[in-house]
Amino acid sequence: MTKADIIDVVSEKVGLGKHEVKIVIETFIEETKNCLNSGENFYYRGFGSFIVKERAEKTARNISKGVAITIPAYNTPVFKPAKELKEFVKNNVPVKK
To answer: Which uninterrupted H or E stretch holds 67?
Structure first.
C-alpha cells in the first residue's frame, strides 16, 4: 500500500476530499518527524512507538582495503509495535509458504 492508496481509502471512509486528507496525513508525518528530531519519542497507543535509539560508536573493517574504520555514534528512528498490533498481525495475517 502506498501513501496515495491510504489517501484514497481515508477520503472514502471519512468523506473528505483527497487534498484535505493528504494535508492531514502529511502533517501527521511531519509532526512525527519533528518530535523525533527533537529527541522525543512518539507513542501511538494501540499501534506502536516511534523511538530514537542511540547506536554506539563501533569499529568495522573495510574488507577490500583490509583496514579498520571507526563508525561514529549516531541516532536512528526505530518503530516498536504495540502488543495489540502484534497480536492482530499474528492472528490475522497468513504465513507465507
So the answer is: strand 67-71
Cα dihedral value 89, 94, 96, 97, nearest 10: 140
Burial status of residue 30 (CB atoms within 10 A of its CB: 0-12, 13-18, 19 or more): exposed
Tens-place pLDDT, residues 6-33:
999 999 999 999 999 999 999 999 999 9
Query: Which residues, in sequence order, are CB contacts of 81 under 8 Å at separation 6+?
Result: 47, 48, 89
pTM of the predicted structure, to 2 decimals: 0.74
User: What's domain 3-92's architecture?
Assistant: Irregular (4.10)
For the chain, residues with pLDDT lower than 50 are none
